[in-house]
Design a protein that fits this description.
The complex is a heterodimer of chains A (415) and B (350).
Chain A lengths: L1 H55 L5 H5 L1 H9 L8 H16 L3 H11 L3 H11 L8 H8 L6 H11 L5 H6 L2 E3 L5 E3 L7 H32 L2 H16 L2 H12 L4 H8 L13 H25 L3 H9 L4 H29 L3 H6 L7 H11 L3 H27 L7
Antiparallel strand pairs in A: 1-2
Chain B lengths: L27 E5 L2 H19 L3 E5 L4 H7 L8 E4 L1 H9 L26 E14 L12 H4 L9 E4 L6 H7 L7 H5 L2 H12 L5 E4 L4 H7 L5 E5 H11 L3 E3 L5 E10 L6 H12 L1 H4 L13 H6 L12 H4 L2 E3 L2 H20 L1
Parallel strand pairs in B: 1-2, 1-3, 5-6, 5-7, 9-10
Antiparallel strand pairs in B: 3-9, 4-7, 4-8, 4-9
The chains are: A mainly alpha (415), B alpha/beta (350).
């Protein structure tokens, strides 16, 4: 009996096993299906734009799109000295045609990115070009503007005809290509972006630390209160959180200005004789940003601290640990996930700050977003804006990896 | 997130997408810069235009920016007449976004200030970046008179305000260094001129405060943070009227004026009516009514003469003011703004 029944049982077990696996697979597919909308959302609104931005940072399509014949002719030219008459004729004819079609503006702007003044030069040349050029095209161009006899202009045009460029990324790193194509540092008066990147990281780091120092005791106090009282105090933390960023930044200007209440109060107390400069400089930026971002540090810390049973500290003390040792060895380690989460939140948010430094900072306190906005909105140099954004993205990713290594990303949590 | 405070963490995302179906036949659309300015335009131009011609108007407003214009220039147009700033006029015209204007229908080029005439646009207002101070803080005859005074911290101690960035800053530095207003762009086009401007700024670097938004200079003057500042003229007059301030504009010190223009979008389906509106808004009898509502100057020479005498002194185009002004050189700044912005920031970081 037993021997006869065994195969049946095996078949039955195998059947059950298959059914279980099938059900498991179905569950997995269902779960996967449920995440699809989010995945699609992330793809369309997050990954594709980032990809587009990275592409914009190296795109060099202007001349190729607007003047295809000229781009082909320049591509075929060897780039040595001045081009032959036929290449010059093709370029001149395409210039004229693009100008007539009112499409030359983008090419002119592109050249101006490399040599200030070339926008007007190119538009001016195109405006004066005759319908058909008799004889030497190069001479005709040079008659309009002698700069057309410069080999450097023609080399620039050839470079601009290529589909991709590293110009913007190099510029965002304060680098440029020399006449021979070698990479070198930009002159000191144009080399500003690395400085601005460091400044951005420096301000963000300080704000993160300041938030931590201020938020930790506050969160501790909140966590040790009865929930009813804690909620009331929490409102005070969150009220500014719900107030417009602009209003809060403007309020700091009023508070910190030379004849503002803080300076008046300090003078009245006799602590200072002349008003302190606390706004329109780095001090103002740090104060205002710390205030604006404080809730992002308080909330995760509070959440984590709420979850630590009070008995732990009592147990540590009853085992003979002095208060500070008990805090350091029992309480602090348990709040690390909150510190990790809060610090990451505040740091990442600070890095993209724009309007607060613009309003309360001086000329030397603007963060990288200010310049991204400048290139996007004011000069429409999207290549440069994308390059700066890409550099920022890479810097943040690198920092995140270091952070994950040092803090341990599994340790980041909110309780 | 485990938090015992339920009411504090309500989810709050409600996205409502209102998809406007484009109407096949729509009314003529005019787009301007909104706020008090567009309110004044409505009273002076838009409502009287509909009354006179029977053409109904729809208004829209925007914050300038060539990116927005590029989007609007694609496909079937939803904007017809648009007010643009000087750089957008140049760039947009080069990119073919605007319809060339029929200047005969506008009364000919000679009827307008030179700077208001462009192939694609007609100037509609003149506004200025000027030097302002609080008249209440200075005794008679002791107020600053010139940009040289602006840079003289010995004679006038205290902080000065300038706009953050090189535009409308380097020009004033040169004026402060003795360059006559009409020559500033000539000097600024040379490397020595740029060096000279930065050297002048350097001389009072610690006393400079950089403003960002047009609303800041009057506020900073009022709070006593600044003794003098560059500012937009309309903001100063508005502060005097609404907050009873005694701010003064040092017109004779020299100032930079800019012109906002009206353009007709090339993809407008009703260009004829659009041109009619542009002509109406450029007619002297209409233009001259605007300064009483908001202190911007007209561009039509006849309109300038007809501005009521009690408001004329507040406008950049009053003859006694205009002789000290220099037209903002849009071509220079379109070419050089990025380079000089880099230079400005490297200077600020030193």
């Amino acid at each position: 009996m037993a021997a006869a029944s065994t195969p049946v049982d095996t078949v039955g077990l195998a059947e059950i096993g298959r059914a279980t696996r099938r059900a498991g697979r179905r569950r997995q597919w269902k779960a996967f299906g449920l995440t699809l909308p989010l995945a699609a959302f992330l793809l369309v609104f997050f990954l594709l734009p980032i990809f587009g931005m990275l592409q914009l940072a190296v795109s060099n399509a202007e001349l190729g799109e607007v003047m295809p014949d000229a781009a082909a002719a320049l591509g075929a030219w060897d780039g040595d000295g001045l081009p032959d008459g036929e290449t010059a004729r093709t370029v001149a004819a395409d210039l004229r045609r693009a100008f007539e079609a009112r499409a030359l503006g983008e090419v002119a702007a592109r050249l101006n990115n490399e040599v200030p003044g070339y926008r007007s030069m190119l538009m001016g040349t195109a405006r004066k070009l005759p319908e058909t050029i008799e004889g030497d095209a190069l001479a005709a161009l040079a008659d309009i503007d002698p700069v057309w006899r410069e080999p450097s202009l023609w080399r620039l045009l050839k470079r601009t005809a290529a589909p991709y460029t590293d110009l913007y990324l190099l510029q965002a790193l304060d680098l440029e290509r020399g006449a021979g194509g070698d990479i070198r540092r930009r002159p000191a008066e144009q080399a500003v972006y690395l400085d601005i990147l460091w400044r951005t990281l420096e301000i963000s780091l300080f704000v993160t630390l300041a938030c931590l120092v201020l938020a930790y005791p506050l969160a501790y106090k909140l966590a040790s209160l009865k929930e009813k009282h804690a909620n009331l105090l929490m409102i005070f933390v969150l009220l500014p959180f719900w107030t417009s960023l602009l209003v809060r930044s403007a309020a700091w200007i009023v508070l910190l200005q030379r004849e503002g209440p803080i300076n008046d109060g300090l003078i009245w107390l006799g602590l200072i004789d002349t008003p302190l400069s606390m706004v329109f400089n780095r001090t103002g930026v740090l104060i205002a940003m710390t205030h604006v971002l404080l809730p992002f540090m308080v909330l995760p810390l509070y959440a984590v601290m709420r979850g630590i049973p009070k008995a732990h500290m009592r147990a540590a003390k009853s085992l003979g640990a002095p208060p500070f040792t008990a805090f350091r060895r029992v309480f602090l380690p348990q709040t690390l996930p909150g510190i990790g989460a809060g610090a990451l939140l505040v740091f990442i948010l600070s890095i993209g700050y724009y309007i607060t430094p613009a309003l309360v900072g001086g000329a030397n306190d603007q963060m990288i977003s200010y310049f991204i906005a400048f290139f996007t909105l004011q000069t429409v140099n999207w290549g440069m804006a994308a390059a700066l954004a890409s550099v920022l993205l890479v810097a943040v990713l690198a920092l995140y990896l270091v952070y994950a290594r040092v803090v341990g990303i599994d340790k980041v949590g909110m309780g | 997130m485990r938090i015992g405070t339920r009411p504090l963490f309500g989810a709050l995302l409600a996205a409502a997408a209102l998809v406007a179906t484009p109407a096949l036949a729509r009314d003529l659309t005019v787009t301007s810069f909104g706020g008090a300015y567009q309110d004044a335009q409505r009273e002076v131009y838009f409502e009287p235009f509909t009354e006179a011609t029977g053409i109904p108007l729809i208004e829209d407003s925007w914050n300038a920016g060539i990116g927005t214009l590029r989007a609007k220039a694609e496909g079937e147009g939803t904007w017809d007449v648009v007010q643009v700033e000087s750089e957008e006029l140049v760039l947009g015209c080069e990119e073919g976004m605007f319809e060339p204007l029929d200047w005969q229908a506008l009364g000919g080029e000679d009827a307008y200030l030179d700077a208001a005439v462009h192939e694609c646009g007609v100037g509609t207002i003149v506004w200025a970046t000027i030097m302002a101070f609080d008249g209440a803080k200075f005794a008679d005859g002791e107020a600053p008179q010139s940009w040289a005074d602006f840079f003289d911290t010995g004679k006038f101690p205290g902080k000065r305000g300038l706009r953050k960035g090189p535009r409308g800053t380097l020009e004033f530095a040169l004026m402060g260094d003795g360059v006559p207003p009409e020559q500033v762009y000539e000097v600024l086009a040379t490397d020595e001129g740029v060096d000279r401007a930065f050297a002048k700024l350097e001389s009072i670097k610690d006393d400079l405060i950089w403003w960002e938004a047009g609303a800041q200079p009057p506020q900073l003057l009022a709070s006593g943070e600044l003794v003098m500042t560059s500012a937009y003229n309309g903001r100063i007059t508005a502060a005097n009227e609404s907050d009873n301030r005694e701010f003064e504009i040092a017109w004779p010190a020299g100032f930079i004026y800019q012109i906002d223009s009206l353009v007709v979008m090339a993809n407008s389906p009703m260009k004829e009516q659009a041109m009619e509106l542009v002509a109406f808004m450029s007619a002297p009898e209409n233009q001259s009514k605007l300064p009483a509502k908001i202190p911007y100057g007209p561009t039509n020479k006849k309109a300038i003469e007809q501005v009521p005498s009690e408001v004329a002194p507040n406008t950049p185009t009053a003859p006694e003011n205009l002789e000290h002004g220099v037209n903002y050189d849009r071509a220079f700044w379109v070419d050089h703004v990025e380079q000089l912005n880099e230079r400005f920031n490297s200077w600020a970081a030193q």
